[in-house]
What does this fold into?
Amino acid sequence: MRTRALHLGLDVGTQSTKGLVVDAETSTVVARAASSYDLLEGLPVGAAEQHPNTWLEAVESVARELWQKLEPEPGELRGIGVSGQQHGLVILGEGDRVLRASKLWCDTTTTAEAEELSERWGRSVPAGFSASKVLWLARHEPELWERTQRVCLPHDFLNLRLTGEFTAECGDASGTGWFDATTRTWDSTAVDTLVPEFKRRLAPLIDSGSQAGRLTPAGARILGLDEAHAGVSVASGGGDNMMSAIGAGATREGVCVLSLGTSATVSVRSETPVVDPSGAIAAFCDSAGGWLPLLCVMNATGVLSEVAEAFGATLNELTHAARKVEVGARGVEFLPFLAGERVPDLPGATGSIGGLRAGSLRPAVIFRAALEGVSLNLAWGVARMRTLGLAVDRVRLVGGGARNSLWATILADTLNVRVEPCKELESAALGAALQSLWACTRASDREADLTDLAAPFVSLEQALVPDPDRVRLYEELQESFRASVAQLYGANLQNLS
It folds into this structure.
């Protein structure tokens, strides 16, 4: 009987945890599972929190479902990789006890702290980054902060629970605000001046292609495994954007990935650091030894879900109807900032719909306007990436929104790029599994190439190409979109020109 070489990839996101298992012997995904959850309710406007125990419960549920399908023998499970939502602040007290719910990437209650840190450090610190959350906590909940022994990100927290080792990894760490992506080290100025005694609360950084540790008996129980599986490799892991890049094959320079989830991101692999003086494009490291300059907008699939809920229709129904609506949504313009926005930097913004006339308030028209609004905002940020010299001439499309072929067509036209949907849309979970495979392979072969290891798992659907006539129409709509944002919010948006 053939022995399988299984690697588990877990993607712990904002709306759900997804898991899949690959077999390195056959280069296939052999099982998958998911578990959904929500944000905490009853919080102030702008607050977005989840308790880390929610993630642990979801991980356990997903893992048990996977093992029911696979029934792995001891020795078949070779490694584990964890992808986590970026920027979330997890604080631990004595005995690594969780002290409070995690403030997430989409929490905008720390806007004042972000503005203060941006002025203090002379660079942009978005409200979504972890640094603003630390400062907020130290000021608003000082007694809790005094009890804090360790500060970590969601994926760091999960690695700690699985291995007992407290580590951090450069890709995910580059979204904290206290990391220097150019040198791939903690930023000493930020660490020393954020809050008193901050450095002692941080984990040591490890290499992206290394192991965070070995699965402990307690970690095995979290995954629904018996102690015979203790000792299995747990890779360094990383943030969901970094893992998604691996899962989409962006492990060599120039490969660009567009992910459509709760937020939407556009990232491109680079062999050298790319720093945007305006801060619009994040200077991230990737989780494969390079860099990953990244655009993030906070409003994507959530906007579509809001429209669907408002009209009591499904996304499929609205998409079918919106196909019959012409480019420009009959003059309706949707500024989709329902959760504030990171790019452009408008954390306190609200959404708006303009250009309404008799007949405009049709579900198909509003849904088309929402699709176009999110896409035009993405195109604005992509224009900034091109200004920095980044080549965005084709993108690999991943995430839940990638299943919407109308949206993919609109993106091809608004971004004026070739769009290549990945067959495996859960690229972050796949990337976590592939990074696990890489870490295990490097244990015996330090020169193992991640691109070569990942290639058999990455395949693409038929590409969508931009239509020249629609591209011209969207260029006109882009100018109107930018003017409306500037007029409504009175913002200086020259850094996106």
Summary: The radius of gyration is 22 Å.
